[in-house]
Amino acid sequence: MKKSEKTISRRDFLRGATAGAVSFAVAGMFSGLVHAEESSGDAIYTPGTYTATAMGIGAVTVTMTFDETSITEVVVDVSNETETIGQLYGDTLQEALMEAQSADIDGVSGATVTSDAVKEAAANCIAQAMGVAEALDATSEEAQSGSWKDAPDAVDDSEIVETYDADVVVVGHGYAGLNACRYLAAQGISVTLIESQSEDSYQAMGNEAGTPNASVLLDLGVPEIDPIEYYNNWMVNSGYQANPGLMMKFCQNSGEAMDEYLSVLSEEDLSYMTTAFYPPTEHQMSSIGAYKFWPSTCSFYSSECNQTYIHQKNREKAIEDGATFMFSTEAQQLVMEDDAVVGLIATNADGDYIKFNCKAVILATGGFGANSQMQQDLLTDLGGCLTPDESFSVLMDSDGRGIQMGYWVGGKLDSLGIPTMNGKHYHPGYPQGLWLDADGKRYCNEYWGPIEFRGRPALQMQRSFYAFYDSKLIDYLAYSVPSHGSTYADEDTLAGVEEELANALAAGSEGVQGNDLSATYTRYGAETLDELLDLVCSDETVKANIKASIERYNELCEAGSDEDFGRESELMFPIKEDPFYCDIKVPDIGWMMCTCGGLVINAEQQVLNDYYKPITGLFASGNCASGRFGTEYFTPTPGVSLGTTITLGRECGKSVEKFLNGEL
């Protein structure tokens, strides 16, 4: 390792930043300057009020007031962020900035995108007060004129403050990156993992991991799964657009990978694990039509043993095996020589450039849902479905840095359609009921296949729509499959639904407000169908359509054949027994949890160029790479997104090992 020292001036601080913008990644440097100068008693700010706007999910604005030596007031506006996430933490972040007297604060777990935007805007306010930057307005045409596709200038060696050597650099401490790193370290390979989050505030995302044939599940009695059957079902779900070789690796190796991932846990740790849809309830189904489902999920929701804790234990094991972990380190660009990746440039917690010399890089940086330009450029199929009043909205995601870096060195971008969790999906209601569009007409098979309602039928529901049930809903809920969006009909769940129905019935014309992952809704209840229709609809034409649709559906149920939309005869549940219930929902097309693709890779997870040839030394795994789901997200087992990244991260480590041995 080589290290060079330099003195950092305010001019140095701004080097590499665009006019009027200061990256939050270097906010800590301002903190150091502030406290150093404050201790001397010198004036460091020009008194006044300064405002800056950075991009989170939407525009985030921070306004700071200064006297000569301190920040006297902070106002944080997060009104454009997701209502149930970023908007909840404006006051928390505001108080943290005031207390720290700098932009060097911890982010909020679960609201990373918003936290980063607040820190970026705060750093710019401080820079303005110090007279070293102009106001940042990330919403201006000038700020948005640059393209994420434009590669940055190469960093000169004179700007590098430290240089490190490793055989492999893994970018990202998520499920894929961590498991790749752990495998490589266990083989005695020199590997360094860098992560942009700080170690103290690091949080893993997600809880459930769908993993066929993990020993911890088999020991509980969860049935063993035929990998070939699981694979063929997976390819049916994806329309054979998933990468065949890649997904066969998951199906054949998921049990082994999960066993390794959980091997760091004690028996007490494992006692906190639950598994979705197991044991199966009465009438729980294993298929709907051509689509099959399996209960084979490792779930960790407890505070005593959650995924952040499991990541920590795996990190400790990797370090024991020789791996190096560097937190608060943000990848910036790859280093190429003779069309091969030979290194990586990153910035450290102080915003200084550091360099890694290596033989291979694994990009495992997550999706790009927090990058508005990449949303527009890469989610063209989803974007084309939005109305003029709708926009993309994301719950949790990364800014696409790994995809950008791969693209800048020639990596091919997926052009067939990148899946998102939700996006074109929504949950219209329980499939045991009857779904009607805004005109009161039935429009689909409510029980269609993979349960996560997606694709063209969902796009018909750009207005509000109806889901009708009768009093036997509690009985019908038992007819479910192990899948996201489905109902595990155990006693506690059914008791909860029964209470919700009773509340709706008691609420009368007020109804009961609720929300799920993709829609807000109001649930109404009434003793007769006519009373219910008066509560949910004032348009007599629509009301007549609803009555006709229910009558038609009941006739089909009695006949035992859905001639209109092909619903399986054993799943035809009539709307006849009082009292009756109706959910009125408004879908949110474009709302997503994260994106699940980007760079095109082969079965060895090598990043391919425009000619479908591997870029030497460059690998990608997890949500920054395509190939797992085809163009749509689906779950034949709950939690397969985490399950696939755990397994394929480890498989990526195996591929890198082969590359280093000259076998690729």
Describe what you observe in this structure.
The chain has about 675 residues and is of the alpha+beta class. Helices cover about 30% and strands about 20% of the residues. It contains 19 helices and 26 strands. It has a six-stranded mixed sheet with strand order 12-7-6-16-26-25. The protein starts with a strand and ends with a helix.
> How far is it from the N-terminal to the C-terminal residue, by CA?
28 Å
State the share of residues found in helices, binned by percent: 25-40%
The radius of gyration is 27 Å
> Could you give the order of strands across the largest sheet?
12-7-6-16-26-25
Main beta sheet strand tally, sense and closure: 6 strands, mixed
Strand segment count: 26
Which consecutive residue ranges, at least 5 long each, have pLDDT under 50?
1-40
- Net shape: globular
Mean pLDDT: 88
Estimate what percentage of residues fall within beta strands: 15-25%
Helix/strand-derived category reads: alpha+beta
Number of helices: 19
Write the layout of secondary structure elements.
Blueprint: E1 2-3, H1 10-14, H2 27-40, E2 48-55, E3 59-66, E4 71-77, H3 90-100, H4 112-129, E5 160-165, E6 168-171, H5 175-186, E7 191-194, E8 208-210, H6 215-218, H7 227-237, H8 244-262, H9 267-270, E9 287-288, E10 291-292, E11 297-299, H10 307-320, E12 324-326, E13 330-337, E14 340-347, E15 353-357, E16 360-363, H11 372-378, H12 380-383, E17 393-394, H13 401-408, E18 420-422, E19 434-436, H14 456-459, E20 465-470, H15 473-476, H16 491-507, E21 512-515, E22 519-526, H17 529-536, H18 540-559, E23 580-587, E24 591-595, E25 606-608, E26 614-620, H19 640-660
Helix pairs in contact: 5-10, 5-19, 7-8, 8-19
